[in-house]
Specification:
alpha/beta
């Protein structure tokens, strides 16, 4: 999470001195948190997800393994694997960058995917027009529909389906209530509203409310995924690009850790779910010359979407 020293943030600090105390506490906690991340990452080998056996790879953005295990309704049991990254772009760099997968279509709602080479996949489908400006995300139903269309048009290709949920801004009744109560960036990405972590620090949103909103958002995307997998054939794997910190303390006396952009690692960020869903039939996968995708997003559009998701400013 970025901690910008903007005029508005300074004003908030002057109005609420406890924010200054919290920031000092956070800064004092950083060396311990970074040391913890280095220690827990030692010797950890990540999974090469592209080398595994699947026809459909479902990526849930910022999905924690523990929440997934508690909430999914699939008959199969979920394992945990080590993600190549602890944030989306790091995951994409280590998984996709400099490689070619011309037997695969990548359907994505994550703005970082626009940084990938045009010929990295047979086709990259950026969900551009489906962006919800009021909330600041792409709904899971849009990804699902794009997957069905691609599966019908290209039945001989593997599919990577990168859903934005349960990454904030959250969906569901708790998130709706928060939108009504607090001016949150990434919910309605306008004005000088707060990111949700800042709202917690100011006491406008509770830790439990954030966790409940996250859980509800995960339930929503899991329902969509379950319905989708009933419509497409092939072996599917459900996983995540990284996990999410929801206010846990790495040590009893350190500050709470939120999100996944602090710059240090934790097992909660690196260990992600891995659930394999078998199918009655498999696809005959073939490679083809890539279909170039015209990127209609400008640099400003990309920056706005990353900001709505809490990655910048």
């Amino acid at each position: 999470m970025r901690h910008d020293l903007s005029i508005e943030n300074v004003r908030r600090a002057l109005r609420n001195p406890r924010l200054v105390r919290r920031e000092i506490h956070r800064l004092l906690s950083v060396p311990l948190n970074r040391g913890y991340g280095w220690y827990t990452d030692r010797g950890v080998k990540s999974m090469d997800m592209m080398a595994q056996d699947w026809d459909n790879l479902i990526i849930l953005d910022a999905c924690r393994a523990d929440y997934f295990e508690a909430q999914h309704d699939f008959e199969e049991s979920s394992d945990r694997v080590v993600s190549p990254g602890k944030r989306s772009w790091e995951f994409m760099q280590k998984t996709f960058l400099g490689k070619q997968f011309h037997d695969t279509i990548y359907i994505t709602s994550n703005p970082y995917a626009t940084r990938l080479a045009d010929d990295a996949f047979f086709k990259i489908e950026y969900l551009i027009d489906e962006w919800d400006d009021d909330i600041g995300t792409i709904h899971p139903e849009e990804v699902s529909q794009a997957a069905l269309d691609a599966h019908e048009k290209y039945p001989d290709k593997r599919l990577i389906l990168h859903f934005m949920q349960p990454h904030r801004p959250y969906l569901g009744p708790t998130a709706e209530e928060l939108r009504e109560r607090v001016d949150l960036k990434g919910y309605r990405n306008e004005g000088d509203g707060l990111q949700i972590w800042g709202a917690v620090k100011e006491g406008k949103v509770s830790v439990d409310e954030v966790r409940q909103a996250y859980s509800e958002s995960l339930d929503i995307v899991l329902d969509v995924v379950e319905e989708l997998l009933a419509e497409i054939n092939g072996k599917s794997v459900i996983t995540a690009d990284h996990g999410e910190m929801l206010g846990e303390r790495l040590f009893p006396f350190t500050s709470r850790v939120w999100g996944h952009s602090e710059g240090f690692s934790t097992p909660t960020l690196r260990y992600v779910p891995w659930l394999e869903v078998e199918a009655n039939s498999r696809r005959d996968i073939t490679s083809s010359s890539p279909v170039m995708t015209e990127k209609e997003l400008t640099d400003s559009d990309i920056e706005d979407r990353l900001r709505a998701l809490g990655y910048t400013g």
